[in-house]
Amino acid sequence: MEKRMFGRTGQQFPLLSFGAQRIVDEHNCTEEEAIAIVNRAIDEGITYFDTAPSYSKGQSEERLGKALALHGRRKEVWIATKTHDRTRDGSLKLLEESLKRLQTDHVDEWRLHNIMTMEELDKCFAKGGALEALLEAKEQGMIKHISISGHTNPRVQLEAIDRYPFDSALVALSAADHLVYSFAHEFLPKANEKGIAVIGMKVMALGKLAPWYEKALQYTFSLPISTSIVGMESMEQLEKNLAIANSFKPMTELEQLDFLKEIMHLANPDVLRWKSTDWVSGEWYVR
Questions:
Q1: Residue 179, burial from CB neighbour count under 10 angstroms (0-12, 13-18, 19+)
Q2: InterPro entries annotated for this entry (predicted)?
Q3: What is the dihedral sign for C-alpha 135, 141, 145, 147?
């Protein structure tokens, strides 16, 4: 599988990475299945795992932690988790709980989770805000790298990377996302210019791109990004994604354009719900 540089970190990752949000009861994945899926992914070369304390009230982190501890594989992988709290104190408390569930003394990457508006960004950067927690945690060795994520408005993340040299950014980069508030068009060039690793997410647009499964993955893989996380809740999904990633050939500009024309009808509020400011974080956490 093709590997790419991860921004300024000196690390490399395969273009397919593991979104651990779905290895939970809520997505009909048992603990036994979760452990098997995670270990199969590592066996096949996947080393980047993304999770968050808000995914199924910590069950995602807990299962990822168990899967790695059971077979002693923590040192083989890079763990990224998040804080949905906008304050220093609240974020540090979340990190302490995340480390316990993940059964580790540090995470490789910690993100400001789903920063949707300038107001939220301001809260994180204010005195006593979440950014203070990220900086303190890094100084204490509890985290290695500082990140931010966003689904909604690329201008918010553009402002963020102008204010602070984040190591990475996790942003919505499905083909459907290209059609409204496009991170691919607005954010990606600037992030690349600054040496910030960009991780693609929402690759299947919450399942709306399933009829074009292979094309959807190929489109995001073809962007100038470091890697893409894909949520996987079954061994079948993992194997399908591995097969596509292992045989990946970049789409030409013409192929990308044809695909965008084919899915243009999906550019509406019912499909791209995360582009709306009223699609909040309620899906992941309670404020």
A1: buried
A2: AKR2_Oxidoreductase, NAD(P)_OxRdtase_dom_sf, NADP_OxRdtase_dom
A3: negative
Q: Using DSSP, state whether 98 is helix, strand or coil.
A: helix
Reported confidence tier of residue 284, pLDDT bands at 50, 70, 90? very low
CA dist., res. 148 & res. 112, Å (int): 5
- What is the model's pLDDT at position 285? 41
Please give the structure tokens belonging to residue 6: 């991860």
User: How many helices (H) and strands (E) in the chain?
Assistant: 11, 10
The pTM (predicted TM-score) of the whole model is 0.94
**Residue 247: partners with Cβ closer than 8 Å, 6 or more residues away:** none
Give 191-224 pLDDT, tens digit per residue. Answer: 999 999 999 999 998 889 999 999 999 999 999 9
How many angstroms from the chain centroid is the CA of residue 102?
Answer: 17
Residue type at 151?
H
Query: Rg of the chain over CA atoms, in angstroms?
Result: 18
More confident residue, 227 or 268: 227
Half-sphere exposure at residue 94, Cβ-oriented, CA atoms within 13 angstroms: 28
Q: In the predicted model, is pLDDT for residue 167 greater than 90?
A: yes
> Phi/psi of residue 231, each to 5°?
-70, 135
